TrEMBL record:
<feature type="binding site">
    <location>
        <begin position="50"/>
        <end position="57"/>
    </location>
    <ligand>
        <name>GTP</name>
    </ligand>
</feature>
<keyword id="KW-0547">Nucleotide-binding</keyword>
<feature type="binding site">
    <location>
        <position position="57"/>
    </location>
    <ligand>
        <name>Mg(2+)</name>
    </ligand>
</feature>
<feature type="binding site">
    <location>
        <begin position="152"/>
        <end position="155"/>
    </location>
    <ligand>
        <name>GTP</name>
    </ligand>
</feature>
<feature type="transmembrane region" description="Helical">
    <location>
        <begin position="16"/>
        <end position="34"/>
    </location>
</feature>
<feature type="binding site">
    <location>
        <position position="74"/>
    </location>
    <ligand>
        <name>Mg(2+)</name>
    </ligand>
</feature>
<feature type="binding site">
    <location>
        <position position="96"/>
    </location>
    <ligand>
        <name>GTP</name>
    </ligand>
</feature>
<keyword id="KW-0479">Metal-binding</keyword>
<dbReference type="GO" id="GO:0003924">
    <property type="term" value="F:GTPase activity"/>
</dbReference>
<keyword id="KW-0812">Transmembrane</keyword>
<keyword id="KW-0472">Membrane</keyword>
<keyword id="KW-0519">Myristate</keyword>
<dbReference type="InterPro" id="IPR044612">
    <property type="entry name" value="ARL2/3"/>
</dbReference>
<dbReference type="GO" id="GO:0046872">
    <property type="term" value="F:metal ion binding"/>
</dbReference>
<dbReference type="InterPro" id="IPR005225">
    <property type="entry name" value="Small_GTP-bd"/>
</dbReference>
<dbReference type="InterPro" id="IPR006689">
    <property type="entry name" value="Small_GTPase_ARF/SAR"/>
</dbReference>
<comment type="similarity">
    <text>Belongs to the small GTPase superfamily. Arf family.</text>
</comment>
Length: 214
């Protein structure tokens, strides 16, 4: 009697297991197809954010070999496209003024990487910088996106070091960084120091997650 009662349960479990395996196989197959499609395109969508006057546009211009001597505040957004390591990067440089931050969410879709730019010399607003970044990292649509933090303006004597910036931002806090790939790089948008190192890390990290190895 006990065996008869257990038999349907065992059969049901077997069916569930078979269904789970089929679902897993389908999901893996679909994921492989998507990765192959991504590999063919080899495009990355990078969202560059941070408080106003952090140096976002200056960094983008430096990447693109454009003049950086006169930079006006970004009141909307700019899109720049360039290639690095055989990948095409579409960088969305979005204004960081307080009145514009509520519009950041309009650019979250399909983001592969976030570049968060910090004015390391703006010690008064570092807590505000941390708060805005933490809110960003709780966004579901940005889950899994690689996070590069540029501790910018290292050419200024008043700038906090990379380690000091990391401490102030609370990097590694499980609430905001659990499972998140992130990296901090000291840089200067004016001199170009650290920019290549940072963007190459971002590209390689995204590639390791999204594109299939050749």
């Amino acid at each position: 009697t006990i065996l008869k009662k257990m038999k349907p349960t065992t059969t049901h479990s077997t069916r569930l297991l078979s269904l789970s395996l089929l679902t897993l196989a389908f999901t893996m197959g679909l994921w492989t197809i998507l990765k192959k499609m991504k590999q063919k395109e080899k495009e990355m969508r990078i969202l560059m954010l941070g408080l106003d006057n952090a140096g976002k546009t200056t960094i983008v211009r430096k990447f693109n070999g454009e003049p950086t001597d006169t930079i006006a505040p970004t009141l909307g957004f700019n899109i720049k496209t360039f290639e690095i390591d055989n990948y095409t990067l579409n960088i969305f440089d979005v204004g960081g003024q307080k009145m514009l931050r509520s519009y950041w969410r309009n650019y979250f879709e399909e983001t592969d990487g976030i570049v968060w730019v910090v004015d390391s010399a703006d010690t008064i607003r570092l807590q505000q910088c941390k708060d805005e970044l933490n809110k960003l990292l709780l966004e579901e649509r940005l889950a899994g996106a690689s996070l590069l933090i540029f501790a910018n303006k290292q050419d200024l004597k008043s700038a906090k070091s990379k380690d000091e910036i990391a401490e102030v931002l609370g990097l590694g806090d499980p609430k905001h960084y659990k499972g998140r790939h992130f990296h901090v790089v000291a840089c200067s948008a004016q001199t170009g120091e650290g920019l290549e190192e940072g963007i190459r890390w971002c590209v390689q990290d995204i590639a390791s997650r999204i594109f299939m190895l050749d």
